[in-house]
Amino acid sequence: MSVATRSQSTEPDTDLPERPAVPASGRLHSLRRFWPYLRPHRTVLVWATVLAVLSTLTAIVIPLMIARIIDGPIAHRDFPAIAGPVALVGVLGVLEAVGIWGRRWLIAVPATEFEITMRAKIYRKLQSLAIGRHDAWESGQLLSRAVDDLATMRRFVAFAGPFMCIHIVVIPVGLLTLIALSWQVGLIFTLISIPVTAICFRFVRRYEVASRRSQDQSGDLATTAQESAQGVRVLKAFGRGAYFGTRFTAQSRELRKTELLKVRLDATLWSAMRSLPQLAIAFALGYGGYAVAHGTMTLGTLVAGITLATFLQWPFIWTGFLLAELNDARTAADRYWEIIDTPVDIADPVDPVRLPARVAGELRLEKVGFAFPRTGDGAREPQDRVLRDVTLRVRPGETVALVGATGSGKTALLNLIPRLYDVSSGAVTIDGIDVASMRLADLRSLVTVAFEDPVLFSASVRENVALGDPEATDADVLRALDVAQATDFVNDLPWGLDTRIGEQGLSLSGGQRQRLALARAVLTSESAGQRTRIMVLDDPLSALDVETEERVQERLRTVLAGATTLLVAHRPSTASLADRVAVLADGRITAEGTHEQLLRTSAHYRELMGGTSDPVDAAVGAQSSTRSEADA
């Protein structure tokens, strides 16, 4: 988390259904759904598979050549005649090696491009899903699907899938060739395939369940690890590291049990796949030796049959591994499509309203009601309403402070304006246009948001501040930092604007993180072009000490002067920035007026601002009790 890391030059750079306990058995539908994304590479995939089949078939031809050599030149002691067949065996061996190399070389590019394409698709889907959907999902589960499951799919596309096609061809051809050499040996191998098939079907049913359980448990484990790493300061401060360590260990043990079950199933299959072909080879040796001794089989035929039987045991053995990979891939595909198939609750309208070149910026909330959706059990029924019939008008260029007790719905109300959530009833309009009728890109380019809990990324200071405007110059960034009173501490960082601030910005103080987030909002609002901007600020100064807050307010007044602003305020000093204050209680606007008017007329407002009946004492008392944080 150290800040002393130079920024690298990089390109700046979806509630989900309840996961099933057991996936539907025997279905390959989820795997078939990937075909449209593989179709552009179908020529390469087909040629790679054909090349692999041909190279594998050479391994069947080689035993036939050996039989001719033994029964021909060697049996007749015609050693000069050996050179040609031996050379041909060498050529076949080289062709087999070239085929293996060619298959790997051809398959590498489409397999990795497929993985990249599907990761980009799931990333876009996650970005398109509403915040309510994300709230219902653990981050580790999302990471597991986007990283581990797609790596499993890549391995299937590059290896397991093609080899299953290869074995479908090689095993029948090999058995027919073996029958042609010796029908008795070929028959025993064919009979052995019956119990092998039964074992495979039993394996598929049981391994499928264990595979899904394992991948879900891996996602839960990743969530715990990620939360423990991000919250390490809290765990240390409260001495709860051992508790989370115990929970992590318990989850690891559960995953271990599932993995051991997979190993036992896999071991049982591999043992059967190894032992049954070996029994067939033993029969071939016994019968072949007897037949050669009695002159009913040539030595060359015996050697070729044993060589071919030894070769054929490996496709049988590898069938077990390929079935395990198939089940892992099918489970990964099921988990992947669970996310992709999640409905997008907040999307562009079918016929969006085109915004004028210049927007006046009047913001209205008209009888707005809102309830968070229930997501824990996969249902979408709303919970109790947080907001009820909220009506509020913010005039163009006006700043309105939203004040209310904790849990009154202030942040939820702010989230409705850029459509991070949709209203349950009523409407939010800008210049009389319902935000639900606008393109999301247009709406979110018009509305600038700064959250109370600042979210920073593992990138440079410059990249974090210019997140909303990648074309911003250093001068733009520095001007925004100056408004947020962040210039001094940024200059003190090891590489200034190029300093990487670490994951979540935890190497910075709370006040420093909040000022960088505020600078980001300021820069984004100033880059809005000719459109009058709308700013939505969720208590942007809560982590600042009084002195720093005063300096930021002086600069911020200039920025807010030309913007339509709705901000959440908990301090009198922040509320005094506003032209008007709206008090939110019990999900409704219960009072409106200037800060001074409400101090005189609203007992509830006075209580929120300092808990005294005297307006002057309320302001002074609230200032003196303000939280203070060192911003070194």
- Globally, the shape reads elongated
**Rg to the nearest angstrom?**
35 Å
What is the end-to-end distance?
17 Å
Structural class: alpha/beta
Helix content: 55-70%
Number of separate strands: 10
Number of helices: 21
CATH topology name of the domain at 30-211 and 263-340, in short, is ABC transporter transmembrane region fold
CATH architecture of the domain at 30-211 and 263-340: Up-down Bundle
Q: Overall pLDDT, averaged?
A: 79
Strand line-up across the major sheet: 6-7-8-3-9-10
Characterize the biggest β-sheet. Answer: 6 strands, mixed
Q: Low-confidence segments, ≥5 residues, pLDDT <50?
A: 1-26, 376-381, 612-632
The CATH H-level homologous superfamily of the domain at 30-211 and 263-340 = ABC transporter type 1, transmembrane domain
Beta-strand residue fraction: 5-15%
CATH class of the domain at 30-211 and 263-340: Mainly Alpha
Protein name: ABC transporter ATP-binding protein
Main location: membrane
Domain ABC transporter: 363-611
Pfam families: ABC_membrane, ABC_tran
What would you note in describing this structure?
It is a single chain. This protein is an alpha/beta fold. Among the domains are: 30-211 and 263-340, ABC transporter transmembrane region fold (Up-down Bundle); 363-373 and 381-453 and 532-624, 3-Layer(aba) Sandwich (Rossmann fold). 60% of the residues lie in helices and 9% in strands. It is built from 21 helices and 10 strands. The strands form 2 sheets. Strands 6-7-8-3-9-10 form a 6-stranded mixed sheet, sandwiched between helices. A 4-stranded antiparallel sheet has the order 2-1-4-5, with helices on one face. The longest helix is centred in the middle third of the chain and has 53 residues, at 241-293. 36% of the residues are buried. The model is unreliable at 1-26, 376-381 and 612-632 (pLDDT under 50).
